[in-house]
Amino acid sequence: MTASEPVELTEGQKACLRLVDDHHTSKEIARILGISPFTVDQRLDAARRKLNAVTRREAAKIFAAMENGPLSEPLVYETSRLETAVFADIPALPPGRAEQRYASLSSLVSVPPLGGERHELSKKEILIQSLNIAFFSTLVIAFVVLILTGTMRLFD
């Protein structure tokens, strides 16, 4: 998300994001604002999508930064596009087929994240993460059985 793209949030979304930034749960926010927890979750999810954030906490941090403005003023002699000036001469290398294949496979078979918040994953993501857990559990159990079998054969 760039600074040139203004994001239009409703007042309800802004109020919910402020309370998430203050570390309140959906139930607490619902009690404070006098609405249902489901409405809170809907407002936060819509705000999260508008801000292109992964989690509601990240959306709250982005919104707080938008409200408060930059933390410091730029230095007088600081160039605004330093990284593009330094690396402008270096051509970008296209990724090879092996890297593309590895990236596509690693996106399908990844270790599921630990923890999380309510309503963070879609139904498709929940299914994929469940299959990942089943796959890795099967691998671990097979590895343990292989080690135990090898150990038993060693002692026989």
**CATH-level-2 architecture of the domain at 11-68:** Orthogonal Bundle
Beta-strand portion reads under 5%
Radius of gyration: 24 Å
Head-to-tail CA distance between termini? 63 Å
Give the overall silhouette.
elongated
Separate helix tally: 7
Q: How would you describe this protein?
A:
12% of the residues are buried. Among the domains are: 11-68, Arc Repressor Mutant, subunit A, CATH 1.10.10.10; 121-156. Helix 1 (11-21) crosses helix 3 (37-50) and helix 1 packs across helix 4. The mean pLDDT is 78. The chain has helices spanning 11-21, 26-33, 37-50, 56-68, 82-86, 97-108, 123-155. The radius of gyration is 24 Å and the shape is elongated. It is built from seven helices and no strands. The chain is mainly alpha-helical and 156 residues long.
Overview in brief:
This protein is mostly helical.
Core attributes:
156 residues, mainly alpha, Arc Repressor Mutant, subunit A, elongated
Fold topology:
Layout: H1 11-21, H2 26-33, H3 37-50, H4 56-68, H5 82-86, H6 97-108, H7 123-155
Helix pairs in contact: 1-3, 1-4, 2-3, 3-4
